[in-house]
Amino acid sequence: MSARQSPLTFFETVCSNFDKAATYLQHPQGLLDQIKACNSVYHFRFPVQTEDGYEVISAWRAEHSQHKLPTKGGIRYSEEVNEDEVMALAALMTYKCAVVDVPFGGAKGGIKINPKKYTVEELQRITRRYTAELVKKNFIGPGIDVPAPDYGTGAREMAWIVDTYIALNPESLDGSACVTGKPISQGGIRGRKEATGRGVSFGVREACNLAEDMKALGLTKGLEGKRVVVQGLGNVGYHAAKFLQEGGAVIVGLAEYEGAIHNPKGLDVDEVVKHRNSTRSILNFPGATNIPKTLEALELDCDILVPAALENQITGENAPRIKAKIVGEGANGPTTADAEEILLKKGIMVLPDMYLNAGGVTVSYFEWLKNLQHVRMGRMGRRFAERSMGQVIEIIEASTGHSVTDKQRQMLVKGPDEEDLVNSGLEDTMIVAYHEIHEVWKKTKNIDLRTAAFISSIDKIATSYLELGIFP
Ligand code: GLU
Q: 181 CA distance to ligand 1 centroid (A)?
């Protein structure tokens, strides 16, 4: 999805948001400079054999901050990948992890390719070679730097990465923790695929549940009935739309590369995906109006706009025409700095990326823990919990003479399995983090939620440096 260039580069935008927040903090300038700097950037090139001969591939891994280890962040495959973007995304990972109390530093990787132009075998070769290059330079490992999926990658690529890493480190008992977002058979965790979108829906719901804030926007409390437009039907956008719909929101617009569709009465997300899969286009969905210029979908009349595609989608050019009351950033960096100023002046609430899309890395953290523990969450306690609850019911039934119905018994006697635990950990994380950010927002005059999230995040990172005694 193309968009007008922002006057600042992506990394500069992240740094300017950092600087804005830093003015509210009392930390020494040297410490703030250290937190802001991108510590290590590795740019490398390698050859790959394709059907047409050899091709030189350009790739990066940036580790923004090692204040906590391992560093963590996805790997994207896109022709747009460049050093500035990788550094910006790595920086966002640092702040994102701190905001949701995930004990990692931030990193990001990228390979400058259009994955659609390669065969599966070629992609496998590229991914394995990329991993081998990272191993050579110590840019990957369970305690060093742990990649994950991002734009253009998924569980399949993570499987190739873990397999390559273990082949090169055969003695590493914890080798499967070198990457997250893996298929379950390779040590992945249930719920990881849906996690970012699910987290977006939890974050939006939490914001909507605060009646006073909704009143200030001219909205009612709660997600029920809120009109939502989602840009991007990839992993994040699809799951965000699906879970928002399940939570009672009405999806009135959906946008993809080829165009967008609009129906004020609501679109069924799964039906739209089925239609797109069978016709290869989102357009011409029964009952919906076509919007051929995809970016125009951002300007539709709605309560909540969720950009869940790429960076720089809401710019100084289109921001004046945004009609949503809430912008929920599912993507990383979808709003340029000049656009944000315009949105805030219009009184729009922006739920910032570093908080709203942190569900992915949160569940990556659970996957990493699972890999280090070598045991599936819930395996040890599920049946025990079920039996204990069964006994409690029996005792209550015997002493009161009342028996519970089969339906009630089924509901009560359910020990948590891996997916239950992952989803409840994710929900708790998103709720707790929102209230932390919200508290900073309310107690600091004239700031927006992004600045509040940065303040909360920078403060946590600064504390971890200060408690090490590095900046006395
Ligand atoms: N790529 C995702 C993000 O930007 C997930 C990162 C991870 O799980 O490490 O947050």
A: 9
Q: Which of 93, 192, 193 to mutate to test the pocket of ligand 1 (most atoms within 8 A of CB)?
A: 93
Q: Is residue 108 annotated as a catalytic residue, yes or no?
A: yes
Token pair listed for 50: 């394709």
Q: Is it true that 10-178 and 195-356 share their CATH fold?
A: yes
Structure tokens at 335: 């709003």
Q: Could you give the 3-state DSSP secondary structure of residue 140?
A: coil
Q: What is the pLDDT of residues 109-133, one digit of tens each?
A: 999 999 999 999 999 999 999 999 9
Q: By the 8 A CB rule, do 5 and 24 touch?
A: no
Atom number in ligand 1 closest to CA 361: 8
pLDDT in tens, 397-438: 999 999 999 999 999 999 999 999 999 999 999 999 999 999
Distance CA 426, CA 345 (A): 32
Domain ranges for the chain: 10-178, 195-356, 378-418
Residue of 297, 293, 284 whose CA lies nearest to 254: 297
CATH topology of domain 195-356: Rossmann fold (3.40.50)
- Residue percentage of the chain with pLDDT more than 70: 98
Atom of ligand 1 nearest to the CA of 150: 1
Query: Among the options 68, 72, 108, 193, which is catalytic?
Result: 108
CA–centroid distance, 204 to ligand 1, in Å, is 19
The residue-averaged pLDDT of 212-218 equals 98
CA distance 176 to 187: 6
Q: Which two tokens stand for residue 344?
A: 């805030």
Task: Please provide the CATH number assigned to the domain covering 10-178.
Answer: 3.40.50.10860
